[in-house]
Amino acid sequence: MYGKSIRMERITDRKTGNAVIVPMDHGISIGPQEGLIDMKQTVDDVSEGGATAVLMHKGLIRYSYRGSGKDVGLIVHLSASTNLGPTSNSKVQITTVEEAIRCGADAVSIHINFGSEDEPSMLETAGRISEQCNDWGMPLMIMAYPRGPNIKDTFDPCAIAHCARAASELGADIVKVSYTGDIDSFREVCKGALAPVVIAGGPKMDSDMDILNMVHDSIEAGGHGVSIGRNVFQNKNTYGITKAISSIVLDGYSVEEAFEFIK
Question: Is 175 strand, coil or helix?
Fold first, then answer.
């Protein structure tokens, strides 16, 4: 398991074990996005701001590789769907662990919508990828969301806790879930997951302070970091918001102290 340990240190902070991941995999799902056009500049901004890793699909790497600047870990996303068709909740594998290794990945990730009609095939795929990750010493992050015809509230703490635990039992080394909205309920998510938990950023939020408060509370509850995309790369100050988030997650800053990086 030394391979996993070495690679985990490339996508997390050695001192705290926490992670500031900036996902940039949105193009397949929802098309071109503001902040994901000049990829080299965006990767520069978040890496200089303290991100420990960026996450993207294999085809985006060629447009994002800089050849200079601060090092940042690379997570290659292995699954996808688009919102153009009726099966957007069904994530299928589009990249292999071996191909991710050839691309220079330090870790891989997959997305599972628990409760969707195609949950069985996503679970089967996750089991296979988890085994391959163990064979190759490759860390696996699972994005775990409760989404489907019987899911009435995608932010229900019990449903999120179930997803987090299921992802851990499938072999995830890092679990990504939505924040439940308060420290007490999210503490139960983190306790039950066993594997390190990071929070998603979700849709674009109204204010930078809202983002920082959510990040701070998730760490207070036992979370191990963030995997926030649009609320970082679509911010008017991408470097500043990344630096602010990183200061909370990696250095223990208060929200007020972190906000100074955005002013």
Answer: strand
